[in-house]
Each structure stands twice: as structure tokens, then as C-alpha cells.
Amino acid sequence: MSRQIVLDTETTGLDPKTGHRVIEVGCVELRERRLTGNNLHLYLQPDRDIDHQAMEVHGISNEFLADKPRFAEVAVELKAYLSGAELLIHNAPFDVGFLESEFCIIGDEFPLTNICTVTDTLAMARKMYPGQRNSLDALCKRLGINNGHRTLHGALLDSEILADVYLIMTGGQTALVLDSEKAASEGDPEVVVSLQTENLIVVHADESELAAHEAWLAKLEGQGNCVWLNNGQS
């Protein structure tokens, strides 16, 4: 069974090589392109201050993280959760670099690709939409995904949104059906779905199938008013 993990992190700054740390990990599980609900969400105590610029992006404060576990306390759980999956990450080198750095700090140095595969959805989007903005917000706007509730970055929220983006980019299926139902119930008449149709195979009816279709329509017309015939759609 295909298992995919949509993953995002929030950090104290931009570069683990200068001592910055992971403070939030958000993971959303997909199996066979469906959300399972088996998600993983962790806040972490980084043992250092968060850069002001980073705090403006995600809104996570040093005070909020004061009583949260350290990475060493969750490393075994996280490694087991990720093992064997395909990770879907927007701008994967950033998150992968931080996670590998965290494992290295606790003495468990290894390439993340030793335990899972990694797909960079930003690289995927750049191939699909060359020359366009391909941030998560830009993709949501392009694909008709509602992300109005995203006022700040958050690892779990961004993973949930990225799951929707990925499903639409790779086949037009969005797993968050409840969002569409909610929009309809609130009087929103438009639900936007983006379909990738360039690879669809079109199978045309042969002469015998067309003849059988015409015969069936004639039979319907003999029993009353055949709408297809009268509208010229046969």
C-alpha cells in the first residue's frame, strides 16, 4: 500500500549550520491518495532563542516552547513514523537539512533518504508552471484552494494545505472533501476543481456501438419523447 507523508517544519532561523533548530514538525499521512488521519504533530524546545524574523513568520514564541520536549525525546517516534514512506515536502532541501541536523546533534547521523524517499513538491510545481510563482500561497490561488485561514505559517496547517495542492497537481483529486461540502452549505455556489486532463485516454465508439446507440434511442423515441433526439444530441 502506497504510504506518503506530507511534511513541514518550523525553525528558529534559516540555517542549521549556524545553530538554528527545529521547533515544530507537522506530518499528514496519505495512503492510496486518501487522508488517513494518522498525523504527527510535534512542538520542540530548541534550547536557543528564536530569531525575530522567524517568529514573525510562524508566531511561535520562546515562552510557548519552554515546556515542550526536546528533539532527543521524540526522535525514535519520528524516525519510526517516517520510515518506509515517501515524504512530500515543499522546498525539501530546507526541511531535510534541518531534520538531518537534528538527528546528527543527538548522535544519529544519517541521510534521511536511508529510511524514506523524498519528493520536492516545489520542484514539481516549477516543472508544471515554469516562470510562475510557486509558493504554497501562489499554488493555492492558482488551483482554487481556500487557504484564508492561513494567517501565519504552521507546520501541521501547511502540511494539510500541501496535501490538497499535491493531490490536485497530480490528478485533480482533493482529499479534503469536507471543505467543499462546508462551502456549499454556507451558500458558496462555486467549488473549484483543477483537473489534469492532458494524459487522459479517449476511447471512441466503433461503428457497431454507434449503431446500437442509435437503435436504443429510436426505441426510446417509440415509447415517448426522447430528449436526446429532439435536442439533436444523438
> Architecture of the largest domain, according to CATH?
2-Layer Sandwich
Instruction: Give the tally of structural domains.
Output: 2
Low-confidence stretches: 175-195
Q: Quick check: average pLDDT?
A: 85
How many DSSP-defined strands?
A: 6
Strand content: 5-15%
Amino- and carboxy-terminal Cα gap: 43 Å
Q: What summary fits the major beta sheet?
A: 6 strands, mixed
**What is the CATH topology assignment of the largest domain?**
Nucleotidyltransferase, domain 5
User: DSSP helix count?
Assistant: 9
Features:
single chain; 234 residues; alpha/beta; Nucleotidyltransferase, domain 5; 2 domains; 6-stranded mixed β-sheet; 6 strands; 14% strand
Molecular structure report:
The protein is α/β, with parallel strands linked by helices and 234 residues long. It has two domains: 3-185, Nucleotidyltransferase, domain 5 (2-Layer Sandwich), CATH 3.30.420.10; 203-234. It is built from nine helices and six strands; from the N terminus they run E-E-E-E-H-H-E-H-E-H-H-H-H-H-H. It has helices at 52-58, 71-82, 92-105, 121-128, 136-143, 155-169, 177-185, 207-222, 227-230, and strands at 3-11, 22-31, 34-35, 40-43, 86-89, 117-120. Strands 1, 2, 3, 4, 5 and 6 form a six-stranded mixed β-sheet that branches. Helix 5 packs across helix 6. The longest helix is centred in the last third of the chain and has 16 residues, at 207-222. It is elongated.
